[in-house]
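Predicting holo structure, zinc ion bound.
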Amino acid sequence: MKVRLPTVLPGLAVAVFLLSAGRNPCPGRAGGAAGYFVPPVVTIYLSFDDGPCKGSEEVDRLATVDSVPVNVFVIGKYVFSSDSMNLLFRRYERNPMIEIGNHSFTHANKKYRKYYEDAGEVLADFNVNRDSLHLVNGIARLPGRNFWRIGKRRQEDIVNGKEAADSLAAQGYRVFGWDLEWRSDSLGLSVHSGREMLELVDKTVREERTFRAANIVILLHDPQLQNAEFLAELRDFIRRVREKSNYRFGHLSAYPDLEFPVGLAAKPLILTSR
Ligand SMILES: [Zn+2]
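Done. Tokens:
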């Protein structure tokens, strides 16, 4: 429907336009008579790779005790390596604060370049992991590669693996990389304090260096939480984030532009067994 502005009262029309513009429908932009600034709400995703392993128990406990959403990317080979690892995986499954993603069955046996030379083998490896662990949400992360395939958007490292990422995406996997890694040093100590990490998050978001604006995926690894000091810094980071009104934590299933709600698709391709 077309809306005609009254031609006899141009001054009034301009005034109406200015008033409605002042409502500031765009978050993060200056608006209102006083020129206030509404910062965008940024979602932080904490993602832990390479479980189950030592440290997974702490990841599980952190998610519960701190009531923080966590994504884990698991390796089937580790799940079936022992009863204790299997139990850790079951804990992940039972924890509503934890969402489980696919990190391949073999983790490329740590021979990444060769692994990615055969896209068909990579897809088969992810399918074995999906089927043996009953991973139904399609959320995946490539071992040793920071590649993204979300909706129509894509991003990748300069290393090989593009074909593998494409074939996973074509089969319905949502391939997540990461925007920022929280590293530890050779002693397992946190390279950054919780305060420094929040500063880095602020800077990365402000400079729009994330795959998707106002969303930041942080990479961690389960073994890091074996170190009590690292864990304390992570807890401090979570506390500081919660003190800021423009941040929240989320699960990757709520990441923008997933083609259909994770786990709710009528017929996701990845649920079709070959
Ligand atoms: Zn990994």
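The pocket of zinc ion is lined by residues 49-50, 103, 107, 143 (CB under 6 Å).
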